[in-house]
Design a protein that fits this description.
With 80 residues, the protein is of the alpha+beta class. The chain has one helix at 19-33; strands spanning 36-38, 43-48, 51-56, 59-63, 68-72, 75-79. The strands form two sheets. It has a three-stranded antiparallel β-sheet, with no helix packed on it. Strands 2-3-6 form a three-stranded antiparallel β-sheet, with no helix packed on it.
Length: 80
């Protein structure tokens, strides 16, 4: 007896993007919007429903004209 096993061939190799390219794209987009870094912010709290998302020593960037705020850091989630 002869058995044939049909295997599907993957024609396109999956390419994973690195986070550095994503960061570069994000930074270039933010620069185009005109975002400026706001220094000396020690803490940011975001209130959402029954949760508080807290950033300690975040990097805060803002563009008032574009109504855009960027908060970068490690979040801690707590309930109210």
């Amino acid at each position: 007896m002869i058995f044939f096993l049909a295997l599907s061939c993957r024609k396109k190799k999956a390419v994973h993007k690195s986070s550095t390219t994503d960061d570069k794209k994000l930074q270039s987009t933010l620069k185009r919007i005109g975002v400026n870094t706001i220094p000396a912010i020690e803490e940011v709290n975001i209130f959402k429903d029954d949760l508080v998302i807290q950033f300690v020593n975040p990097k805060v960037q803002a563009s008032v004209v574009a109504n855009t705020w960027v908060i970068t850091g490690t979040p801690q989630t707590r309930s109210v």
